[in-house]
Structures
1.
Amino acid sequence: MSTQIFTLPLRPVSGAAYPQTVLSTQAAGARDKEIWAVVPAEAISWHRVSLPAGLQKQSNRMAAALQSLMEERLLDEPDLLHLSLQPEWQANSPAWVAACNKAWLQQHLSQLQAKGHVVHRIVPEWAPVSQSGAMSAWVSGAPEDAWLWVSDTQEAWCLPLEAGVKFWIEKIQSAGSKQDIPANLVIQADPAVAELAQKALRQMQTFNQTDTTDRLSTWRVEVQSSVQRYAQSAATNWDLAQFEFAAHGSARWLQKANRIWQNFAKSPAWQGARWGFGLLVLAQFLGLNVAAWQLNAQAKLQRDFQKSILTQTFPNVTVVDAPLQMAKELERLQRNSGAASPRDLEWVLQSVGAALPAGQRIANIDFKVQGNGETRLQGLQLSESQGTAFVQALRKQGLDAQASGTQWRIVGQKAGF
């Protein structure tokens, strides 16, 4: 499986308004390829809504329900916007809804499709947090045009950096307690505005309020390139390819299964489950090996027992295949003593005569002495119950019988011990 990620430009840059490849994990010889598109943060507005129960089971009504709920929140008509709902949303609980220009998105997807790239997944460059008590912050842009993006589980906002810092300080002042301010917050920053982000953080940390100083002192700035940010966005569960932009076919199931596997294999939250799964596999492996060892020991014990019986009964025989040699030696003794065996025609005829019901006639007998002895009888007319009784009676005499129409094939059972 390989992945190719495109970024969708908000506006023409240096005369190029076409989607550009920003990340590719295409492997040599890969049979399946996924195409992902990254929507720039400036192209999306975020809204917090509560959806009524029952919509999970009525996906055909989801788009209409979202448009109805968002009608008063949007500046444009809902029909002109593409709305997407956060993954794993809960009924009667607040959920994030992303809105972007439908025509703009359709234009870029059509351009990619014209070049042979069918998009399977659409991810936002930046998305608000959905985990309770979490917060995210990002400083983007250029030194002359820097922006601050902040979100928590209640709201998401974006302002020019200077105004954003003042607004953020006001929100900290109005916080009910310092528990409302997260510790160890990492503010991501584009390389071009890393110094401005550090300056803004120092400005906030020098804000004189003793009950929040210890929290703000744990905050730090982390420089992140655009490629790193796109890869981080692609690693989330967000997928804007919903409703009319939903991808179809096996590729969507494959990329969903791949995301689930990657989350299980790498997420710290699943570390305990991975250890448990590994121990379970190890236990099964050891159990199978112990069981195989026990079976091999039992088989060896049985072979040794057979060899012991053969050497005790026939001391002059060199052991090669104990069961087969024992059967041949017994047959040799029977022939030498004149006793009939299941390989002899006399034995077969006596057994057949005793097992056949009254009134049955045999039209033809064909006997071959090779192997275990084979006798073919023709002309018997046995019902199903009579045939079953006939087979069981012969089996007690060491003979196997099989029917094919009116013909019966009778052979001696393989000797063993």
2.
Amino acid sequence: MGVRTTVSRATAALGVAVLLASCGSGGDGGGGEQPGGALEGRGEVTFATGKDTSGNMQKLVDEWNSSHPNEQVRIIELPESADAQRQQMVQNAQVKSDAYTILNLDVVWTAEFAANRWVVELPADTVDAGKFLEPAVKTAKYRDKLYAAPVYSDGGLLYYRKDLLDAAGLQPPKTWAELTAACQAVKATQPAIGCYAGQFEKYEGLTVNFDEAVHSAGGDVVDASGKPVVDSPEAKAGLDALVTGFQQGVIPQKAITYKEEEGRRAFQAGELLFHRQWPYQWNLAGKTDGSSQVAGKFDVAPLPGLNGPGSSTLGGHNFAISAFGKNKATALDFIKFFTSEPSQRSNLLATSQAPTLASLYDDAELIKQFPYLPTLKESILSAKPRPQAVRYGDVTQAIQEAAYAALTGAKPSDVALKDLQAKLQELLK
């Protein structure tokens, strides 16, 4: 997923309590390996992850548990915000706690966790690179060694109200100007509808949306060598498209508070014409149980850009094994189970999240049920990664602060980008 997940504050507090209670615990869990040691030990393991809104993650865990009575997996739910999830995992690692065995990492965290030796290297044959999407496999590696397994991939999609565009005689927009014009046309008969929203709250989702705006305008945040190049006319044009969107009402003011779930609920309530979102929204927005007002009325298209089709930021999640967790052999087998074809098919059917096995995107039966799969595959294959950095937490915070300052009018976009360039040069030396 790219960066979504929801969980209650009480659950977050419970996760912290588990973390603190486990600090320095010395149980051998049946394996007795030292932190960061070999992939040995069998028995119970914990799985730290964001909440699965579909319940299919628990379903797969239950399936594993039913056939592994002596190697049970227990889910530990982490906070809603991706940043808060990362912070809790980092805190757990820094005190060398064994509270978490398996970590559900945003793809961009893999390098940081591997470089700090918070996760262990996995056998190369854990993932058959020939069967997985190449961009997904790259996210699981650090210095050409495998430190995680790609379980979910993700590419941004433009969800749109097909019924309203059809009524106006319009096609899905390929550029930001076309999107704005379509909004004006639809508002002529639907004045209350909001035009466009993405993820603009100051958290990881804003980094993703900022990156997409910059790349979709022909710019880059860092170049191929990892050098910051964000202080450019192209980057400014991309950021200005979002700034102007807020100023002109193309993006509703309340969207500055949107993470994935806030935007999803707004789209499902019929409040938005366009919504930048990950694939998981497809199933939820299509439910006919009364929870969605747009079931059967929407479709998806590639993200629009400044002068043509845009570019998605590469999202997704990898499963890694904590260097301090117990029963690593069990953890590795569970990861292989979760990345298997039956498990990925099950997850796609239940959640509409993007799989990492390439064959599922070409399955005729799946395409019938999820017609967006070819569009999604192209989005992932052409997606641009976020900056790869050992100090990624500092990098993403700098990006969020600069983008948020520009979107809220606290800084002109050129000043925000100049400041960001200087900060990234310091962080990415």
3.
Amino acid sequence: MGQGVLSAGFARSAGLLRCEGVPLDTIGEVAGTPSYVYSTSTIRNRYDLLSDTIASVPHRIHYTLKANSNRAILRLVRSLGAGADVVSGGELFRARQAGFTGEEIIFGGVGKTARELAEALDARVLLVNVESEMELHLVDEIAARRRIRAPVSIRVNPEITVDAAHQYIRTGERGQKFGVPFDDARRVAELAATLPHVTLLGLDMHLGSQLSRVDPYRVGTERLTSIAADLRARGVGSLKYLDIGGGLGVRYDSEEPPDLARFAESVLPLVAASGLQLIMEPGRFVVGNAGVLLTRVLYRKHSGGKEYVITDAGMTELLRPSHYGAFHRIEAVRADNGHIRADVVGPVCESGDFLALDRDVQNVRPGDLLAVFDVGAYGFVMASNYNSRTRGAEVLVDGDRFAIVTERERYETLVQQEVDDPEWRS
């Protein structure tokens, strides 16, 4: 997908970019910039695509909040039938605020605190995905104090080398911090089955993020089902769920998206043979292509033989280019015939503050609007207040209507938690 090819939900009409039926310049005038604009129809279509792909086996889809935890989007995916996958107490709170019941929530994460585990058990979550033997014992202790049995799944590190865009988003390889090492998984699962205040309900894995090949899912599923078979042979009859995580990739530029038909052919027969209910935890796959970052050009500059387009959005709004070297397409909201070669940079006082380097972009001028594509995942959720910058608004579009679903932060928001007259202790 090259320059000028738009994401689903976004199209150009009479030279003007629109999100569904709404011109982006209209949203820019009402919501201001920077703003994140999301397409409802894209989210619906992506969710339905995955649901249809795995429809032949009993399944649950738990949307991963870490991709985008806006409450309006959470309410939307819940209305489509999704549960929630959370990795912190804050995400658990967000999920509950958006209407998810405890039984619709899976709680994961490699470093859960005792408080978070207690909150998960008090919420009666469907599963706690346990990532170590020490955590398993802590869950058992917390459940004992509550005189309940904690529903757990063991996150297994399948130790599979995957082809991901960046080393930071590979989570299922040997030596990663995530999950129980594959060689220990059977023993830890057997231990879980014997603890008095734990019920072992599932096995779980997560290979990584932005994956385009389906073979790792097949191999990982084979490894999980082999553990499940061994456990059953040893008398463990409580297993109900086989959670193969998320990580299905989306297209940002020229990536080849995963072949979902081949995914179904490779993975679903293994799940069916196991007799377990499939769980998937998509995040980026559902929302990644559903959003754009709307930003306004502040200045043009020529320096050191290079052209710079300076915008009011930067690494504080979209960290992925700086942090991961990620590519995001950028187009002017209003079409322009000319093009330039330029760095598109933000206002933050860091040399690493950029949205694109040495990019062919339209010959925009100060005041023009730019759309940075495919920011529906890991955009707003990774935004920061560095340089005491206020975070932008979030806007949801549905057909020919739109609504601001997160108000732009105010300066007062930046200091509201700070204490003017602290209580000194010794």
